[in-house]
Design brief:
Blueprint: E1 8-12, E2 17-21, H1 23-31, E3 35-50, E4 57-68, H2 84-90, E5 107-111, E6 126-130, H3 131-137, H4 142-145, H5 158-165, H6 171-178, H7 186-197
Parallel strand pairs: 1-4
Antiparallel strand pairs: 1-2, 3-4, 5-6
């Protein structure tokens, strides 16, 4: 069934995005009575067993967004973990040196200031680069290599990070997530530009 592959956006009670979960995890949250409320579109119904006393079958309806009791994972100073898939999505699969778009398998993580020269492996010091540009830059800074960056790296907020981790995001989930992006968000501007093109 196609819908069972659609991930559910889990938030805290205040509506702050927390993570993507599959339908089994969503059912477990319902069973543990941790779901405060739901919003978004109905995705699917999960049917359970038949109650021996009432002879009624249990049914859990899963929506695209569920709010759960508990606390958010980090405050405003929380820095999401860095990994290549979210980095490549942040940079729209563009090499930030040559400006061309590549498949994930053709991309690499480049450290603007090389680690061997004191650079950190953090969001503000890494960009997406094609293998050719990364090899050409080698152990130099962009200035030393004569390879200016076409965009400045940034640390995504937690909501932006959740968006970057999403595989197949429904329209209502995207609307919900983008409402949590800062007004100055580069990702917000990218999405608005894509919407104008479509």
């Amino acid at each position: 069934m196609e819908a069972l592959h659609q991930e559910v956006l889990r938030t805290d009670v205040a509506g702050m995005p927390l993570e993507w979960i599959n339908y089994q995890e969503a059912v477990r949250l319902y069973y543990d009575e941790r779901v405060a409320y739901t919003c978004g579109t109905p995705l699917y119904k999960v049917r359970g067993g038949v109650n021996a006393k009432t002879r009624q079958r249990s049914v859990i309806e899963i929506n695209s967004i569920i709010a759960t009791f508990g606390t958010n994972r980090g405050g405003p100073d929380h820095v999401p973990p860095l990994n290549n898939p979210t980095l490549f999505r942040r940079d729209q699969q563009l090499c930030l040196y040559c400006g061309e778009r590549f498949r994930f398998s053709e991309l690499s993580r480049d450290h603007i200031t090389p680690i061997s020269r004191g650079g950190e492996d953090g969001w503000n010091n890494v960009v997406t680069a094609c293998r050719r540009c990364n090899n050409h830059k080698a152990n130099r800074t962009p200035e030393e290599a004569g390879m200016p960056l076409i965009a400045v790296p940034f640390i995504p907020t937690h909501a932006e990070y959740i968006y970057l981790k999403g595989r197949r995001i429904l329209a209502d989930q995207m609307e919900f997530l983008s409402a949590h992006f800062p007004r100055s968000s580069r990702l917000r501007k990218q999405l608005e530009a894509q919407a104008l093109l479509n």
